[in-house]
Amino acid sequence: MIDFRSDTVTRPTPAMLEAMMKAPVGDDVFGEDDSVNQLEAMSAAMFGMEAAIFCPSGTMTNQIAIKCHTQPGDEVICDKLSHVYQYEGGGIAFNSGASVRLIEGNKGRITDGQVKENINPDDIHKPASTLVSLENTANRGGGACYDFTDIQSIKDVCLQNKLKLHLDGARLFNALVAKNESPKQYGEVFDSISICLSKGLGTPLGSVLIGTKELIKKARRVRKIFGGGMRQAGFMAAAGIYALENNINRLADDHQHAKMIQSALQAKDFIGEILPVETNIIIFEVKGRYTAPEMAAKLKEEGIFVIAISPKQIRFVVHLDIHPEHVKRTIEVISGL
Ligand SMILES: *Cc1c(COP(=O)(O)O)cnc(C)c1O
After folding, report:
1. Average pLDDT over residues 322-328
2. d(C-alpha 36, C-alpha 46), whole Å
3. Does pTM top 0.90 for this prediction?
C-alpha cells in the first residue's frame, strides 16, 4: 500500500520510538513533565518567542489561539478555504462565539489589501474585527506558500488597526524549507503560531502553540477547559523533539517527490489543471476518461491510495513514509492509466 491520502498516516520510525521510550516524564498538568517542558522551550526558542504549549492536535492549538485573541461577538478574518473555518467543526463559533469574515484569496492566501477592506469600522452595529488568521502552507491551495513580504504587509495592516495575527502553521516547516526561510522571521511577525508535529514531521500526535508568556499562560487555562490537559505526555513530546531535530530538512525530499509525480500527471490527457506544486501537496483536476473518484479507484486497484477531494479533483500528499521506490511505482502506474 502506497498511501498518499495525507501526511498524517506516517508511523514513528524505530529511532523516534526509541526516543519516546527513553523520555523522562511527569505529570504535565503539574508542569512536571521534563520532556514536554523541553519541547515547549525548544519550540519557543526556535521561533524566537517567549513561550509555547504542547497540545494533542492542531485543531486545539488553533482554537485555543482564537479563543485567547477574541471576545464573543468579535470577527475573525481568514481565507474561505482555511482549515480554521472549513475543518474545525465550526469551532470559531462553538468555542469563541466569534463570527468569521471569509476572504476569496489566491489558493488559500490573502493580501494586505483584502484584510484592510474587510476590517469593520468602529460602529456599534458591526462585529469588532480583532484577529486575522493566515495558513502557511495553505492546504486547500495545494500546499501554496506565502511570500514573506506579503505577510509583513498584512502585519502592518494589523498593527495600524490593532488586530492580532495568528498563523495556522500545520505545514509551516514545508514552507520554510521550500522558501529557505527561518522560523525566527515568523516569530517576529505573528502574535501566535501553531505548528503540527504529526503532519510532515511524522510524530503520532501533537501540535505546539507558540506566543508571548502572557498568551501562553492564558492558553494553558483554555487548554484545560477544552480537555487538553495531559499527564505523562512526555512520551509524545519526545517524538516531537526528535522530529524537530531530525525531520525538517528531509521535507525537501518530499517536495522533490511531489514534483516528480506532477510531471508524470502532466503527461496525461485526462489531467486538467494542476495547482502549482510548491511543497508536498498535489491537487489536480481529472477530466475526460475518468471522474476523480474513478481515477482514485483505478489507483487503489494498484495499491495507491489518494483522496478525491471533489468530483473533479484529486489530492496526493507526499510524506516521510513515501520512499523513492514508491514514487517510481506511482509514476509507472500513472503512466499506464
Ligand atoms: C491538519 C491541519 C490542522 C490541524 O489538524 P488536526 O487534525 O486537528 O491536528 C490545522 N490546519 C491545517 C491547515 C491542517 O492541515
Report:
1. 98
2. 15
3. yes
